[in-house]
Amino acid sequence: MRKSKKSKHKSNEIVLKGIPAAPGITIGRAYPLYDEEIRIPRRRIREGLVQDEIIRFKKALARTRSEILAIHKKIADEMGMEKARIFGAHLMVLEDEVLMSEVIAKLKKDRLAVEYVFWQVLEKYIRVLSKSDDEYLRERVSDITDVGRRILKNLLGAKHRSLDELKEKAVVVAYDLSPSDTAVMHRRNVIAFATDIGGRTSHTAIMAKSLEIPAVVGLETVTSSVRNNSAIIVDGNRGLTIINPSRHTIKKYQLEKKRFEKFEKHLLKLKNLPAKTLDGKEIDLAANIELPTDVPSVLAHGAKGIGLYRTEYMYMNRKDLPSEDEQFKAYKGAALSISPHSIVVRTLDLGGDKFLSQFEVPYEMNPFLGWRAIRFCLARPDIFKTQLRAILRASHYGKLKIMYPMISGIEELKQANAILKEVKEELEKKSIPFDKAIEVGAMIEVPSAALTSDVLAKEVKFFSIGTNDLIQYALAVDRVNEKIAYLYEPAHPAVLRLIKTIVDNAHRENIWVGMCGEMAGDITLTMILLGLGLDELSTSPIIVPEVKRIIRAIKYEDARKVAEKALSLSTGGEVEALAKAKLKEAIPHIAV
Ligand code: PEP
Ligand code: MG
Fold first, then answer.
1. I need a surface site. Which of 133, 184, 275, 399 has the fewest CB within 10 A?
2. Backbone angles phi, psi at 182, to 5 degrees
3. Residue 2 has pLDDT above 50, yes or no
4. Cα–ligand 1 centroid distance for 514 (angstroms)
């Protein structure tokens, strides 16, 4: 169970406990992304002042327009026209005559403050559009919401802040960050982040690791506790955020930061050594990437190849879809730079907590159980085939593997393979070269797939276990909800049994099986994972050296015994206690 959330120390130091999302310690200044929640007053307006309200509204529109134009220009200059297009769509919302005249008409009729009237009209639009059968209209919801908030902030005089305005190094504090926010963070001065919501395996948390900045999520009240420029410490190792730290706390953390950095440097010495146990069992230790720009970090941390390339990030922060050629270049570049190792390219996994401003994913009540990943790709073979063609073409230049996300049963897998076969035939007809022996695998992240993995194993060359989803579906615990994070237990016996089933079924069919969920980087459980027989572990690049350190300090024989014992236990707590005790036996000074 989580301990007390918030405690006040001497002076005005506030210590908040959240969920560690990415390791490391940052001491800096806070940059709250939104100053405060918008409060919309319901004020009556005297008849004689209606015209003033209309003028105020028009001024807010003009100001919003110039803000959006400025951002459009900046993004276009820095990142190209493609990425700037989203702001073109925002301008179209501003120019929507029907919406704006409805606000003015209602303002005259109701005689209430314009911000209140405006938000009522906007909410009505959002409600209607969300339910529309027309895909194009549903897709406009996020544009309208974004622009609406901006107009509202201008009406209320509150400053809308964005990462673009960040001129100095700072700790970003936000209620939540979308994967598209985090995708551009590497270009900004973000040295850490802290959010109110989110779980350990939310995509915001995963992205923090690839940015190599400390992060804590699920703090619940960090946005309301912090002010602009407050001194702040983000302790991504323990999941703590300290606001207005005392001199004593700052000193303590300065020391700790130095110690941690030294430890990390020390681990990098393992870079060129194999992930081999004391009794000679070697396992493939690979890394996960979100963007091709993460490849240098994979190499720097000594991972052997890429066990998961989350390609959906290429589809974010833009209004159009990446073309076949653009994808081909990205996959080819990644394949060449990781050569001679291989790279598992996961086909598009949209949905869940990875929403795009694009048109593909309409509003859903349960997005993690909805139109996601392979379900979406099978419904949109045009998009799927474009991606498969690009991967196949790139496979001629390096060692690529294809992996389908969210497979829930054999029909889906066969359908995906049939589409792949069609694409291969098309390429062959045109004499376009590709790796004819390219390995195709399935992610096992849905319990139905785990339990039928004996059947699925006949159709693929490998499995990779996506524990982030597998755990949430098996234990019925939303992976992004911090309120139930205590129930999100990778060590739960149900999870271990599913992993064992998958591994045994894969090996019976002589295919290899890896794990690419965050559990693969949970060093407390490394021994058990090894003992369960996994052939590959793939984790965020920065975690790779720590996992390697554990593997090199244990015996495979012991790991097998620990795994067997763990499978006989009845709670996650018992499994974790066993794992920690055995790890401490192997590495007495380890902090777990
Ligand atoms: C997983 O579910 O474990 C996984 C690796 O995929 P993602 O986190 O992208 O859903
Ligand atoms: Mg997944």
1. 133
2. -65, -30
3. no
4. 13
275-282: long-range pairs with CB below 8 Å, 24+: 275/304, 275/547, 275/548, 275/551, 275/552, 276/551, 276/552, 277/530, 277/551, 277/552, 277/554, 277/555, 277/556, 277/559, 278/552, 278/553, 278/554, 278/555, 279/555, 279/556, 279/557, 280/556, 281/530, 281/556
Q: Which two tokens stand for residue 237?
A: 């190792």
Assign 38 a pLDDT band (cuts: 50, 70, 90): low
Is 177 within 8 Å of 152 (Cβ atoms)?
no
**C-alpha 238 to ligand 1 mean position (Å):** 23
Q: Which of 290, 349, 471 to mutate to test the pocket of ligand 1 (most atoms within 8 A of CB)?
A: 349
Write out pLDDT tens, residues 369-394: 988 999 999 999 999 999 999 999 99
Per-residue pLDDT at 461: 98
* Ligand 1 atom nearest to 469, measured from its CA: 2
Please name each of the domains of the chain with its CATH number.
5-35+162-247 (3.50.30.10), 47-156 (1.10.274.10), 274-586 (3.20.20.60)
Quick one: which atom of ligand 1 is closest to the CA of 310? 9
Distance 378 CA to ligand 1 centre (A): 19
Residues assigned a catalytic role? 203, 516
Query: Ligand 1, atom 6: nearest CA belongs to which residue?
Result: 466
Question: Whose Cα sits closest to atom 8 in ligand 1?
Answer: 468
In Å, how far are 240, 439, 477 from 221, measured between CA atoms?
12, 46, 22
Nearest CA to ligand 1 atom 1: 466
Distance 469 CA to ligand 2 centre (A): 5
Considering only CA atoms, which residue is closest to atom 9 of ligand 1? 310
Closest-lying ligand 1 atom to the alpha carbon of residue 465: 3
Better-scored residue on pLDDT, 69 or 571:
571
Report the alpha-carbon distance of residue 450 to residue 569 in Å, rounded.
Answer: 20
Provide the pLDDT for residue 1: 34
**pLDDT tens profile 527-564:** 999 999 999 999 999 999 999 999 999 999 999 999 99
Q: What is the dihedral of CA 55, 56, 58, 62, to 10 degrees?
A: 130
What distance in Å separates the CA atoms of residue 488 and residue 2, rounded to the nearest whole number? 12
Phi/psi at 200 (5° precision): -60, -30
DSSP secondary-structure letter at 282?
Answer: B
195-247: per-residue pLDDT in tens? 988 888 888 888 888 888 999 999 988 887 888 899 999 999 999 999 999 99
Residue 203 CA to ligand 2 center (angstroms) comes to 10
Question: Per-residue pLDDT tens for 180-197?
Answer: 677 777 667 899 999 988
Please say whether the beta carbons of 551 and 527 come within 8 A. no
Distance CA 242, CA 232 (A): 6
Residues in the ligand 1 pocket, defined by CB under 6 Å: 308, 310, 349, 445, 466-469, 516-517
Of 443, 477, 478, the one to substitute when testing ligand 1's pocket (max ligand atoms within 8 A of C-beta) is 443
Q: Whose atoms come closest to the Cα of 515: which ligand?
A: 1
Give the C-alpha separation, 184 to 357, whole Å: 15
Both tokens of 356, joined, read 């795009």
Which residues, in sequence order, are bridge partners of residue 424? none
